[in-house]
Design brief:
Structural class of chain B: alpha+beta
Organism (chain A): Tabrizicola soli
Structural class of chain A: mainly alpha
Radius of gyration of chain A: 24 Å
Shape of chain A: flat
Largest interface: A-B, 20 and 27 residues
Largest sheet of chain B: 6 strands, mixed
CATH architecture of the largest domain in chain B: 3-Layer(aba) Sandwich
Shape of chain B: globular
Strand content of chain B: 25-35%
Protein name (chain A): Carbohydrate ABC transporter permease
Number of domains of chain B: 2
Number of helices of chain A: 12
Number of strands of chain A: 2
Number of helices of chain B: 9
Keywords (chain A): Membrane, Transmembrane, Transmembrane helix, Transport
CATH class of the largest domain in chain B: Alpha Beta
Family (chain A): Belongs to the binding-protein-dependent transport system permease family.
CATH architecture of the domain at 61-254 in chain A: Orthogonal Bundle
Strand order of the largest sheet of chain A: 1-2
Distance between the termini of chain A: 33 Å
Oligomer: heterodimer
Strand order of the largest sheet of chain B: 6-7-8-3-9-10
CATH superfamily of the largest domain in chain B: P-loop containing nucleotide triphosphate hydrolases
CATH topology of the largest domain in chain B: Rossmann fold
Pfam families (chain A): BPD_transp_1 (PF00528)
Largest sheet of chain A: 2 strands, antiparallel
Radius of gyration of chain B: 24 Å
Number of strands of chain B: 22
Distance between the termini of chain B: 43 Å
Order of helices and strands of chain A: HEEHHHHHHHHHHH
Strand content of chain A: under 5%
Helix content of chain B: 10-25%
Chain lengths: ~290, ~350
């Protein structure tokens, strides 16, 4: 049958285009506008070109925040991914206890971010917090409000508490899809526990694990609410991650130009890393289809 | 290698079975001779896989013992039993190369490298995959994966037995025949005890020296293909083996005559009183259409299957199949069917009854 070429169908894409334009492109362009202009209010803009970008790229403040951010993401990935896998491996496979575990695991995920922050802010306080008070009783010199290390530990433990469930649940779903025959065959082949993990469980989890890592990376790289509520970025600047720094710059100091340049670079970094993840994932799929 | 003995074995998947109907495997005693090629035949859900998993130790029986030679292995782990098992759906280690897949069971048992390399090559040649040994197992077709599983099952030479759980289900018919022939050759060459679970009678009859037929959690008969064909010990065997299966007709047995529906059928031996529900069984191959000799039959349908024709008819209200040789004209003159007397088996409550001794 002759195919008729009709480009009018493209008009059907128009509504999506309009929605995306108003929800993403136009706001983004406003940011671009701020990033290449200077303004003193009254909607008067003076063209400054890439000046703000140059300032930001060479700014020690941004470098430090970026360093802290990378360190934070690296630490929480290094803890949450192995811990999540470990928990998933040890969860009951079926029955009442499996359901109970699933519900308990899902609970932290359902708590709003600022509430999580508040919980840990109070939990860790030396004067009234359950954790802080008891640590002090036992002689630990713990105080997240004036010790940078304590602040870091608190923020990291909080994130692990909040998000390890996500990794565990995703891995659990991957594990559930492994047919029993694989475990039986491994027994017959006299495979060690490690070999079962390495050659059966890990390959089956690889897909969901990549998604988990991607989600956890993006989320942790953009983290704002919880550390802001607990430490406010302090003590000093020790827990001032990129988002916190950005908000300080834009709303605290009202440096809209540098902040806009900052956000664009921030956005590009996340885009770049996500693209890398995407490429890795699709390459894995390709290998599978070979 | 060793003889495998099952002593008073039974299994239930329930923690507290309340009576026989709760048992997936009813109490049985059975001996698998060392070096035998067995087929375990039965319809789905009759307990074949359960029995296999008990032998390999993946399942612990609710009661009874499993013996390898003289050693009681009922509580021994699968690895300890040194058994190979191939499953219904292919199990390959996706991230390994085919070579590593085949070598895996040997490496886990700490064999030396030179031996492993030699043995893997040998098995690869057998399953026809020596050319692609270095590619990854991920992305192979289902039948290629199953060949790898089969290869992995056969790679160890010192196993006590190789168990196959319907291994050819996913393989296409042409390859099926070829692999089955290879398994058979392998059995002759190495003399492993092989137990092959299937619900396909052709597969069972061509593979095995001894076919074990299971029905409803029980072993109903073990015998050569010929024995299963000629003297089925249970009506299920008669019906399950053969195409079409054995004709079964309720009858009253008196001495050397069976009475049914007002007519009588001569038997070639005398029987004592038959307890319970009595039936006679006759294979369609041993029923002959005649022009007046035997029992009246009304023919319903004739199916031509190529090498012969299957005549479906009715005798005294019961369906009867007759196999008519190719070329024999079938017309309205054929009104009767005659059963060859020495091919008739007598059943009481589904179990075969032997003729009374000395009267034959």
């Amino acid at each position: 049958m002759e195919k008729t070429l009709n480009n009018k169908a493209w008009f059907l894409v128009l509504p999506v285009l309009v929605i995306v334009a108003f929800s993403a492109i136009v706001p983004l362009m406003t940011v671009v506008n701020y990033a290449v202009n200077d303004t003193f209010g009254n909607n008067e803009f003076f063209w400054v070109g890439l000046e703000w970008f140059e300032e930001m790229v060479t700014s020690d403040r941004l470098h430090e925040a970026l360093g802290r951010q990378i360190l934070f993401s690296a630490i929480i990935l290094a803890i949450e991914v192995p811990l999540g896998i470990y928990i998933a491996l040890n969860m009951p496979k079926r029955g009442f206890w499996a359901s109970l575990c699933l519900v308990l695991m899902a609970l932290p995920l359902l708590i709003p971010f600022n509430v999580v922050g508040t919980i840990w802010q109070i939990f860790g306080r030396v004067d009234i917090g359950l954790l802080g008070r008891y640590l002090a009783e036992f002689g630990f010199d713990y105080n997240y409000t004036n010790d940078p290390l304590d602040a870091w530990i608190t923020v990291i433990v909080m994130d692990v508490w909040h998000w390890t469930s996500l990794v565990a649940l995703l891995c659990y779903a991957g594990l559930q899809s492994i047919p029993n025959a694989y475990y039986q065959a491994a027994k017959v082949d006299q495979a060690s526990r490690w070999a079962v993990f390495r050659y059966i469980e890990l390959p089956k989890m690889a897909g969901v694990l990549l998604i988990a890592v991607l989600l956890r990376f993006m989320d942790s790289f953009m983290i704002y609410t919880e550390p802001f509520v607990v430490t406010g970025g302090g003590p000093g600047n020790s827990t001032t991650f990129l988002s916190i720094d950005l908000v300080k710059m834009a709303i605290g100091q009202f440096d809209l130009g540098p902040a806009a340049a900052f956000s664009i670079m921030y956005f590009l970094v996340i885009l770049l890393v996500s693209w890398i993840f995407y490429t890795v994932m699709t390459n894995l799929d390709k290998e599978e289809g070979k | 290698m060793a003889q495998i003995t099952l002593k008073n074995l039974a299994h239930s998947y329930l923690a507290h079975p309340r009576g026989e109907q709760d048992f997936a495997l009813k109490a049985m005693d059975h001996v698998w001779q060392d070096g035998g090629a067995y087929a375990l035949l039965g319809s789905s859900g009759c307990g074949k896989t359960t029995l296999l998993n008990i032998i390999s130790g993946l399942l612990r029986p609710s009661q009874g013992r499993v013996l390898f030679g003289d050693r009681d292995v009922t509580d021994a782990e699968t690895a300890e039993r040194n058994i190979a098992q191939v499953f219904q759906f292919p199990v390959v280690y996706d991230t390994m190369t085919l070579r590593d897949n085949l070598a895996f069971p040997l490496r886990n048992r700490g064999k030396d490298t030179a031996y492993i390399a030699r043995r893997v090559e040998q098995i690869a040649r057998m399953i026809g995959m020596e050319a692609i040994l270095d590619r990854k197992a991920r992305g192979l077709t289902a039948d290629a994966k199953q060949k790898i599983s089969l290869g992995r099952g056969m790679v160890r030479e010192d196993v006590n037995a190789i168990l196959f759980d319907e291994p050819l289900t996913v393989i296409d018919p042409h390859m099926k025949w070829e692999l089955r022939t290879q398994l058979k050759r392998l059995h002759r060459e190495f003399g492993h005890t092989m137990i092959y679970v299937t619900h396909d009678q052709t597969e069972a009859l061509t593979f095995a020296d001894k076919v074990v037929v299971m029905y409803d959690g029980r072993v109903v008969q073990m015998g050569t293909p010929e024995e299963l064909f000629e003297t089925p010990a249970h009506t299920f065997v008669g019906y399950f083996i053969g195409s079409p299966g054995m004709n079964l007709l309720p009858a009253e047995i008196r001495g050397n005559t069976a009475h049914l529906g007002g007519a009588s059928v001569p038997l070639d031996a005398a029987y004592g009183p038959v307890p319970g529900r009595a039936q006679i069984g006759i294979r369609p191959e041993y029923a002959v259409l005649t022009e007046g000799d035997g029992l009246p039959i009304s023919i319903r349908r004739v199916e031509d299957v190529g090498r012969h024709r299957i005549v479906r008819g009715e005798v005294a209200g019961h369906g009867v199949n007759v196999i008519a040789p190719e070329g024999m004209p079938i017309g309205p003159a054929l009104t009767h069917v005659r059963f060859t007397p020495d091919r008739i088996n007598v059943y009481a409550d589904d179990w075969r009854v032997a003729p009374a001794k000395g009267i034959r």
